[in-house]
Design goal:
The chain has four helices and no strands. By secondary structure, it is mainly α. The chain has a domain of about 70 residues. α2 packs antiparallel against α3. The radius of gyration is 19 Å and the shape is elongated. Keywords: Coiled coil, Hydrolase.
Amino acid sequence: MPTYNKLVRDRIPHIITSQGKGCRTRILDPEEYKQELRTKLREEAEEYFEAAKDKDALEELADMLEVIRALAEVHGANVAELDKLRADKAEARGGFQERVFLIDVNEA
């Protein structure tokens, strides 16, 4: 029997049992949940960097967005508040659409 010991999406246990398999789960306390979300974000980012095709990369980005939404809630914000923070930073500092690559800064 494989052991996973990792945070999974809410419907995964149901999907497993609907296939005639059994599984054991537990509900994480808030601090464990926060830590496991951070671990999950790192895992999804690694999978993104390993993706060889655009479709696979987009799947991993979608997974990362789901984890980021959950992390925003853990940190006391909803998705709208997180997006407002993103928009405010983009207005103040710009986005990444112009592909600017900073080489160096002359301090003199």
